[in-house]
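As agreed, record minuted below.
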Amino acid sequence: MTVDGTRLTKRYVSWDRDEPLREWTALRLVHRHEPDLAPEPLDADLTADPPTVTMSLLPGEPLSGGLGTAQSLALGAALTRLWGIPHDELAEAWPWSDDLGFARRLTEGPRPDNVIAAAAYDAAVSWWDGPDPELLSRPPAATVIGHRDPNLPNYLWDGNRVRIVDFEDAAVSDRAMELAVLSEHLSLRTTDTEAFCARFDVDGNRLRAGRRLWAMFWLRLVLTEGRSAHRNPPGTVKAQAIRLLDLLRA
């Protein structure tokens, strides 16, 4: 990313999932209906190599750590505004599809050597014989714009409100699944996500099933040696395996 005054230009390192077009489409939708919720889309060169999207630079500091009450309320308000935006344009380009493939990344991969991670893996394999996969395979009654990347630094806090950035993973989703994605993101481990989710009127069964799915996804990620592996503190694999086991036993 490069900043020129009040303009920020994002150059994408990969675009096999239409990341630049997803971000450009989502930013235009948000700006049309909630112009102060996300960066204003200014320009795009989607056929360049690499593709670029230029947007306005927003005020605020990235959220981090455990959220205070004011920050938590502001984040909930920002997500509620996002979910209220009409999203036909996004749905036409990328129709709703289930997220079961993210769970398969764990259960179709190798069984871990770590004892606790192996137990979580075995429990995840058994999960496929339960009711959750069938529930999550059914289209939700109502869909929303899904931010899909609830890393806390993607929410900017100006002391009064939260604005949202980074829409390259934007997709058609539903409120319960978006709360599940957020609850299981590693950046929110010190946040009381149970209390946060309790503010929203969503299907509890779908939320719980979604949390299990995304916990599986994160276990596979922390088991895999990748470019972000160095960011994970010691004990991350064990902690994530225990979290998954707790969710599957709930």
Q: What stands out?
A: The first strand starts at residue 2 and ends at 4. The first helix runs from residue 19 to 33. The chain has one domain: 2-249.
